[in-house]
Amino acid sequence: MNWQEVCEHPSLQNLPFKIELNERGQILMSPAKVSHSAYQGEIEHLLRSRLKNGKTLPECAIWTRKGTKVADVAWVSKQRFSTIKHETECSIAPEICIEVRSDSNTNEEMEEKRQLYFEQGAKEVWICSQKGEINFYNVQQQIEKSAHVPEFPNRIDI
Length: 158
Hints:
Layout: H1 3-8, E1 17-21, E2 27-31, H2 34-50, E3 54-64, E4 67-77, H3 78-84, E5 96-100, H4 107-119, E6 124-128, E7 134-137, E8 142-143
Parallel strand pairs: 5-6
Antiparallel strand pairs: 1-2, 3-4, 4-5, 6-7, 7-8
């Protein structure tokens, strides 16, 4: 299955969990708790209020060499958005891709997603823990704070 088919398949509409594709076109499903959604919403709000020259994208589908991954929240510049806005899945990653960890996420999965987003052109990847702690990464390493949004808090309270 490809991402276009997933998006158009009637039985996959309005599901109460996140869907991604692996490199074999198999659907991966992850249930989301209320706290997960609350962190997503708060992160999106904080990004939108601090970065005015782009768009925040909740549940942003990104094509990778290992299938379609869906960042919980992303921020994309106006310039990059003009390239991807009509695509089914982003051919290039937004500048900032953010994952909110769930019970089912492993460290290996988070590391793999970080690398895949960077391969697709992300400038930063942020990981939000289940306690609201934010870890920021650039392509080389973990960083103390975001270079794009230096005033972004390293902890979110919900």
